[in-house]
Every structure is written in structure tokens, then in C-alpha cells.
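User: My instructor asked us to take a sequence, write out its structure as C-alpha cells, and then describe one feature of it. I'm not sure where to start. Here is the sequence I was given:
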Amino acid sequence: MVFAIVLLSLLLLIVFITYFKINAFLSFLIVSILAGVALGIPLTAIPTTVEKGIAGIMGSLTLIIVLGAMLGKLIAETGAAEKIAGVMVRLFGIKNLQWGMAFTGFVVGIPLFYGVGFVLLVPLIFSIVYKYKLSAVYIGLPMLAALSVTHGFIPPHPSPVALAILFEADMGLTLIYGLVIAVPAIIVGGPLFGKTLGHIKTSQSEVFQPTESTVQDSLHHAPTTWNSFITALLPVALLILFTVLPYIVPPSNTFAHELISFLGSPAIVMLLAIAYATYSLGLRQRRSMKSIMSIYGEAVKDIAMILLIIAGSGVFKQVMEESGVSLQLAESLQTLPVHPFILAWLITAVIRGCVGSATVAALTAAGVLLPLLKSSGVDPNLMVLAIGAGSLMFSHVNDAGFWMFKEYLGLTVKDTLRSWSVMEALVAIVGLIGVLGLSFVI
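Assistant: Let's start with the prediction itself. The C-alpha cells for your sequence are:
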């Protein structure tokens, strides 16, 4: 009976989001309260459970996501991302444009949220399409595959950050493992698969006619190439540095290890990156502090709903824990003849196919899979990535990314399914294979 309630709760969540079009945060909140009542949590305790669920996940998460959004917004608004993209295209040349576009999407996608990166890079895709008379799908898919993979696998994106905190994973190790898995996933889903799609035709909308950048004007200098790259990749470099340093510094040097632990905290890393970006892309480029703060304010507005959705998922997780269902579910799941990583990937993939949102799918699955992680003893960093890979599977007509790809590139639904949807499936499968491969050597 208990498991039937959990299953019905997940189905109700899916129906609320997909059929009734109820906001994901409200859906999480309503379903969590109903599930709490059905699972026997006292009515007087439910408000406290809701508060604990939100506080438990948002306490350590809010800073990272907000600061990450600020950094990404500044990189986009100042033209740094455009500068990175242009350099990558020139570096790889016409013959290897697909690889250049994939690498560009990867570099730009690390600091930028998916939606921002998508809108920013699509004009670049079409400028190349018009210049070299190539298929927009052939050129664009590798870049957008890279954006999608970074969104699912790599901090500081909301889903992997939230999962790492939920599963008490090491953010630096999750990032390093994520980078290892992301590269083959991008290669397979991007340039290799993209070569088979050169025949797909797209509409040639005048909206995407190449135009001069609006970033450079009489008031603001455009950032240099080195400045753009260093600022965009600084959080990644710092997280990797402070993950490796403890293995280099002698254990006897207690103060150094404490300092490394403090500076290596994801929130401190993001704060350092924001401080540097404020100078390098802001004040140094003759932007006023007021205009920089305005950009940061807009960034917070952009990700407010993401934060609320994550908060809602925390409530669902708390209900599962306090009702005792989590322990029972873990015991039952352990009896299945399926590897925990495969099971995590499969559950997340099914939810993604039903609700459309990769973030919602990952966080919904996390509430169910958390007890399995604790009881099975598998690597929490790899569990984060297994769920991240599953969250990219089954992208179709209920996914906003599906429609963005279709509408921006002017495709039919059929062509979007055989390009975008297949690409998402490929990166999800390669991601799972990468997780399983790493589990044998870690």
C-alpha cells in the first residue's frame, strides 16, 4: 500500500505538470502535502515537514545557483560569450566547424544556464549557416548537444549542484567526473551524430540574419579574448584546483588544509569568480557598478522559478524521509537484479519522458533514490551523474528545449524528433555508459 501511494504521488505530480499545466513548484508542494497525509504524517507536523524540506535543500544551494546565474548573465551581457564563440570558430576552421561548434558550446555552456546559452548561440549558428551555406542542424546540433550535456552533468548548473548537495557528494569530484563523461557524450551526440543530419532543411528566417554585436558601443569596451576565457572558466579551474590541492599539501600542514577547505567551498569559489568578473568584465570595461548590479538583479529574476522548483523537490524528499517510506523503498529496490546506477538512470529517464523538464525529473527521482544510495554504498558523485544522464533522456513534445530547437531552427516535428530527440537519447546513454565505466576504476 505504501509503495502504491508513492507511485500515485509521482503519477499525480506528472499529471499536474503535463496535463493541468500547474506550475512545477506548486505541483511539488500540493503533491508532497497530499502524500504526507496519505502516508500517515500527523497533520500538525506537515507544515514543519514542508519548512524543513525547503530549508534542508536551499540552505546550501541558493548561494551557488544565484551566484552562478549572476556570472552567466554578466558573461552574456558583456559579449564575453560571443567572443569565446567567435574564437572557437576561427580556431577550428571551416572543415572542422562541427568540432569547433561543439567545443564552443562546451566552453560557453559551463558558466551559462541552458536557456541563456541557447538564445545567445543560435544567432551565431545562423551567421555561419548564411556565410558558408551549410545546414543549420548540421552546424547547430553539436553546439546545442554540448549545452545540454553541461546542463545535465556539470556544476554550477542547478540540477547537478542540487543533487550533489542532496547526496552529500563532493562538488569538485562531481565536476571532474562530469567533465570526463561529458566529452565522449558530446562527441557522440554532437559531431558524429550531426554528420548524418546534413540533409535536414531549415527555414531561413530573416530574424537570424547576421548582425553586428550590440555589446561594443561608445560607453563600454568589449572584453579581450583572454579576459573572456579566463573569467568564464575561473569557477571550473578553482573547483578543480582546490580538489587536487589536498592531495599535494602535506597532511601535517593543518592551516593550509583548513584554508583550502574554506576556499574550495563551492559558494566561496562562486563568490571569488563573481568578484573577479565584476572587475574584469565590468569595471575594467568602463561599466558602472550600478549597471553591473542591474545585470545581477536581472539574473536573479531569471532563475527565481528554478530555485522554487528545487525547493519544492526538497519538500517531497522530506516527506519520503519522515514517513519512513524511504527506508522501505530502499529495501525493496535492493532486491531488484539491477545495478543502482542503471536503476537511477531508468527512473529518472521515465520521469523526464513524462514531465519534460530535466531539472524536475532529476530532483523528483532524487527523493526516491536517496535511501538507495545510503543503503547500497555506491559512489555519491557517480549517482549524481547517473541521474543527470537519465534526466537528458526522452526529450519530446513536452520539453521546452524540444520546442526551442524546433522553432529557432525552423524544423518540422518529425525532423526535430529525429535530430534533437535522438541526440538527447545518445548523450543520455553514453553518459550512463561513462558512469558505469568510471564505477569500475574508482
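For the description part of your assignment, you could build on this observation: The chain has two domains: 2-58+304-441, 62-212+219-302. Try explaining in your own words what that tells you about the chain.
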